[in-house]
Every structure is written in C-alpha cells, then in structure tokens.
Amino acid sequence: MTRKIQDKIYKNMEEKVMWSKLTIDMKNHTVTKGEMDQDLNELGGRGLIAQYMIKNVPPKCDPLGSENRLVFCTTVFAGTKLTTAHRMSVGGKSPLTGGIKESNVGGLAAHQMADQGIKMIEVLNVAENKGLWMLHIDAEGVATLKDASQYKGVNNYEFVEKIKAEYGDEVATISIGSAGERLYKNASIQISEFKSGHPSRSAARGGIGAIMGSKGLKAIVIENPKEKFNLEYADEKKFTEVCLKLNKMVAAGAKNDPFSIIGTVATIEVTGANGALPADNFSGKLFSEYKEVGANKFMTNLASRGGKNKLACQPGCAVRCSNSYNDENGNYLTSGLEYETIALFGPNCHISDLDAIAKMDRLCDDMGVDTIETANAIAMCMETEKIQWGDSDAVIGLLNELKEGTEFGNLLGQGCEAVGKHLGSKRIPVVKHQSMSGYDPRNTKGTGITYATSPMGADHTCGLAMGRAFDDAGRSAQAYVSNKLQVAMCFADSMMCIFAFAHMVPGLPLLGELMAALYGGDSSFTRVSTMGVKTLLTERTYNKMAGMTAKDDRLPEFFYNERSIATGSKFDINDVELEVLFDF
Amino acid sequence: MIKVNKKEFEFQEGMTVAEALKLSGKGIDQMVIVVVDGLVLSKEDLNTRTVTDNKKISVLRMISGG
What we know:
The structure holds 2 protein chains of 2 kinds.
Chain A: H1 3-15, E1 20-25, E2 30-35, H2 45-56, E3 70-73, E4 88-93, E5 100-105, H3 109-115, E6 118-124, E7 133-137, E8 143-147, H4 156-167, E9 172-175, H5 178-181, E10 189-191, E11 201-203, H6 208-214, E12 217-222, H7 236-254, H8 258-261, H9 267-274, H10 295-305, E13 308-311, E14 322-326, E15 332-335, H11 339-345, H12 354-367, H13 371-383, H14 392-404, H15 407-412, H16 416-423, E16 430-431, E17 434-435, H17 445-453, H18 474-492, H19 498-501, H20 509-519, H21 526-546, H22 557-561, H23 575-579
Parallel strand pairs in A: 1-6, 7-12
Antiparallel strand pairs in A: 1-2, 3-4, 3-6, 4-5, 7-8, 9-10, 9-12, 10-11, 13-14, 14-15, 16-17
Chain B: E1 2-4, E2 7-9, H1 17-24, E3 32-36, E4 39-41, E5 56-61
Parallel strand pairs in B: 1-5
Antiparallel strand pairs in B: 1-2, 3-4, 3-5
C-alpha cells in the first residue's frame, strides 16, 4: 500500500461521520452532545429501545421517578431514502403497564433529527424544583435547554402555533399538553405532522407523555439544519440499488392498498361486517350502524368539505395514509383521523356520528392523551351507566373534564382499568393494565394471543392477526401467526412504518442486504429476524425483572366466558398454548 | 372496456360488478373491499350493481389493521 493511499484511508477514518446522541440531564439542566453508543449504533426504533432499557433503566424503578429515562430515537435506516424510514420511537418504563414501553410515531421529528445527525435523545433524572423546560436544537445544531414556564398548561395546537411564530414553519415539534403535565397515565407525546405542522401524530400508548411530564420537559423543538448530516454507507451504490427495489415494491403495493386509497378508516368496512369491530365495550355484538363511521361517510365528508386524504405524515412516504378532516363548515378539525380512534370512540361507545368522533380526536390530540386508552375509559362510564351509551355530548363533556383536570377528569387520566375498577365494572378490556385496540379478540384469536402475550400490553401495533381471523386453522395456526407477526413487528418497528413494511413482505431478504450495504457485515435475512427475536425476548425479560408473571399474559376473564354474539366464538386459547408461544 | 385494478376486460351490457370481478379472476373474501367511483360497495351490492362502460373497479386487500 502506498503512503498516499494509506494517508487517504486515515483521512477518511478521521472524517468518518458518526451519529450523535444528546443527553439531557433534567436535574442539572445540562445538555451534552456526544457520539452515539457503539453497541446501539446499528440499532434503531424498538430494537434500540429494548437494548437501551435493559442496560440503563432499573426494571423495578418508579416510572415517574428519577431512575426512569425517556428515550427518543430514529430507526435503523434513518438518514437514508428508504420510504418511511423516518419514524420515531419513544421509550421508557411505562407508568401504565409497569413494564417496558416503546411507542412509535410518524411526523417530521425523526427526519429532522436525522438531518441534524442525531440518532438518540436520552432524558435523565427529574427536575428538583417544579418547572418546565424545552430542548431547542437550532439550525446550527446547537442544543439548549430553555425555560418553558410560559407554556405551562398550554395545549399542543396552541403550543405549536407559538413555536412556529418564534422559530418558523419548518420546525419539528415533540410536545406534551396539559395531560402530560398532569402525569396522566394515558398521556401521549404529540409530534408535528410533515407539511401541515399540526401536532396530530401521537406516540400515545402506555402513558409515555407522563414520563416527559415527570421530567419537566414540555417539548423538543428541532429546526431544519443549515448543513444536513451525511450518512456513511459501507456500500452506497449497493444500498441505493436495493433501496430502490424496496421503494418500488412499496409504491406498487400502495396502489391497491385501502390505507393509501382511503385511509385506515377502511378497516371499519371489514371489521364491522365480521364482528372484529368492538361494540358497546367489547360486548361481542355487531354494530348495525358501522357504515355511518366507515369509509364512504369519511370520503363523502372529505370531498364535500375540502378535506384531504392521501397525505404523507413524514417526508418520502409512499403509502400516504394520513388525512385532514374538516368540520361541517369546512374548517380544519383534526388530522390523522384513524381506525383505532373511530372504532373505540365510535361503535365501542355506541356512537355513529363521525363528526363527533373527529371532535373527540381533536380534543385528545390537543391535550395529549391516547385515544385508545381514553375511549376505553369512557366506555367504562357507559358500561356502568355513569353516562348513556351513544351520548356523544356526554363524552365531549368528560373529555373536557379530563382537559380541565377535575376530580373525575383526573380519574379518567389514570386509564381504562382505574376507571372501570372505580365504577365497579366487571368487564374491563385490559392486558398488563393497558386497554385493547379496536379488535375483539374472540373474533380474531391470533390478535387475542398478541394482546395477551405482547410485552407492550394489549396493543394494535404488535402483531394483528386479523387476516387469519376466521380461517378454520385451529389453535396452533393462530399461535403460529401471532408468534411470527410479533417477531416481524419488532424488526419492522425498528426500521420503518409497518404499513409500508406490509408491502415489502415478498422482498424481506433484501432487508438483510440493505443492512449490510449500510453497516457492512452479514447480508442474510437472519441478521434482521434475529433483531426481532432478540428485541422481543429482551422486552419480556425486562418485564419479568419488573415483576410481571405468566398471569400478566392473559386476557380478561370475560373473553373466555362470554360468547361473541356476532359469531358465537369465545377466546379459547389455553394457558399452555400461551406459555409456550415464545419457545423459539 | 372495464378495468379491474390494472387488467382490462371487454364490457358487456348489463354486467354486474360481481360478474366483472369473476371475469378478472379476482376472488372476494372478507379481507377485501371493492371500490367503484370512490365508494366502497357492500358485499350484497356486488351482485346487483351494474357497471357502465369504461368503469374502473378497484379490488383492495386489507393487509394489516389500522
């Protein structure tokens, strides 16, 4: 090797650009920018959160205490042109489940983080004196913790407007509303959407917003950097070639994807007809008016009021499932009006008024609460006759109590289980203290297995097995599907949006090649699938160390005892089958 | 011509959506929704709704939950 070539190699090594991480210490109010941890550098999203948590956060710690940490990170493929690679994961020990929590979200923030060269933001400790702070990352990449006491009690929509007025329209925001400040266990973290800037994308599940509130961190504001971070590839040419194939695959799939053509609301058309759509607090009944909250009503309202669908929540998305929903007068009401919100505030509360549901969604995003947890908590109020089934005005009233922080509002903020127990309900649809998403587990049993066994608690992102719901494939097939899907979701949530991932299934081996082209090393798909298995097992280990047992991997009794009126089905997966699910 | 997703078929006067789908070989199950003129057709409507010439029928498969 000539001296000239050797010098060039050394120069390149010196110039090698590494991802950075920001460490925010809320006790001392310091911000430190350093190199990303070597052992986490090739990870991202859910996989990164799992490894970070088991290494850094004591499983038995108080979720709202100083030992818990809040972590924001980008994905394995952040900074690349892989479609939907700019999803952001937020992690910590959940105040709701008491276990590990990773909640991922679209919006602009992860893209802006990647452009800033930041892979992870870790938030340590809690402030010793009461107060609110905001992390500001300016266009030069300088990160500063600023006093945000003027924003105390300011909810997300107003907050974003004020921030945009100060820092410009290109800013990305990560914020909590009054719910996070009040440490509600259903509090979300809201992320601003690409282009519109509305704080309508939610890292919602598990009370992750309460962790942010406990640390006194109101927001993270990220400006568009003057100089964008240049990612270093092991083999950029190969990466571009494989990435293009995968992006084309997603774009082709999206052409016939109901989420792309209509939105996630299209799911109502399927679940409403087959009994998977929950009605009247998972009663097992069919909801005869489901079409009033379905795709046609949604599309008609969009068309007649100047609303839009086919919107991308993050730059470069090929699926574009988001939407902007206007009220009766054509004024913007909410965005990202999604299936889960519609299912749980709608049929599960016996409500068939899509406009009322859109108002509920707006209220939830604004104060910063999880629509799934909140709607289930409200269904508890209906189940126990505190309010009447289908009374949308009463629901709005309760949401305003939640926003105002009245005594009952504070109870609602503790989530579905707390409300159900307080009001004496015997039918509380939770697993690991977290309420179920919009699928009745008796009528999609694979999903029920996922609800029961996922380390995240009952969740809509951990492996919905809806496609196999009515296949007469027996118990083993349902368990098999849940197992495979849970592993797949672990690596998908480490890489990209699962809606785009769904179109990549025929090209899964290419993901191994993509990793090798970016990081070097093994190009086999095993590298990817191993990440999924490792993540899942790490999360389960964390929960075990936090005190969870096999009893936490079960559905509530009423799903075993009550037949679905729609189908006659019970949840009949037995304990042994659930216990061996992860014997890989 | 009738278009079912990307494929084109000869139009026949009075043909129903179900007949057009049969020609295209597209199977209908509970995970599929059928969209004509931007609206979702219920399964019951497929046998009664007739299509006009040059109509596009979209058969969309739900691949994951919302």
